[in-house]
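Internal tracking record. Fields below are filled automatically when a chain is submitted to the structure queue. Please do not edit lines marked as system-generated. If the sequence contains nonstandard residues, flag them in the REMARKS field before resubmitting.
Queue: standard
Priority: normal
Entity type: single polypeptide chain
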Amino acid sequence: LALLFLSMAFVIQGGGLEPIEENSSGVYEGGGFAEKVSAVPQPESAVMDSVRAYEEAAECYKMAVEIDPGNAQAWMNRGIVLMNLDNYSCALECFNRSLDIDPENAQSWSGKGSAHYSLGHITEASDCFDRALSLDPRCKGAWINKGLCLACKMKHNEAIECYDKAIEIDSSDN
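SYSTEM-GENERATED OUTPUT FOLLOWS
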């Protein structure tokens, strides 16, 4: 049954759930899906359909983790969906649950960092991105988001180094 809800969530999202570091922007800059979509000229119904799809996916992941609370991937995916709905506190809880189950998951560490960043917890976010990068040095989103944290601390040269690493990873992936 948990697999059914996971599959439903995946389909509702258009089959396109990607890890945080591979999202369309790769960065959570304090605004989630709704804010980003609203900046793009679209008919209002398209925006609402997209938000509804994420809300439906969040509900499916909620049911999936209720059925199988030991599923780290489902917790992480629920966190990603909640980030896209600008529900950062609940997303943070989901990433924490995922990490309780699988503490070596770089994507969950990156997601936890994104949630902290979006909540204004820059030091905690930076620590999470460092942990993600210690587990997966090719985690492009963690490099970008670590750069954002450094820029917030006015460490611009170090931030640029992080962005350069993300570009290097992106270039080698193509």
